[in-house]
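Sequence decides. Consider this:

===
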Amino acid sequence: MPKIDITDPRITFARVTINVDGEEIFAKSISYSDGTQFSQVEGNAGMSLGTTDGLYAADEGTISLYADEAAQVVEKFGDKFYEKTFTVSVAYEKSGSSQLTKDELIGVRWTKRSVNDQSGGDGLTRDFSYKPAYIKWNGKNPRSKMPAGAN
């Protein structure tokens, strides 16, 4: 079991920004992921001859916003809520470090809106599901040869 070192703080904060038409809207939280599904190449050798590069895909995720920022999103997208594309930036750094990590979700479109209100002192939030075209992890493309339209 690793020893706890209180002088080595871990990442504790991320700044999630929705970027649409040059305007930034801040989000409370986000989930995102991507991956690839490769296939086996088969012939008549009785076994796999290798694998393909596979199909890359970014998965559907969810962004949670406080009610005021959610209202800004709805206003900004207007009648093109499910049509307009945008980007999302997630930046974080280790406390005491000057090295910033920044993931970018490119070609994002909304897929669903959700409300689950409750009484109490917590701020009201809204959940928005989305699907990106691809995700740059700390400035790096997911594939070495990205299509021209994806750059």
Q: What stands out?
A: The chain has a mean pLDDT of 86. The chain is about 5% helix and 45% strand.
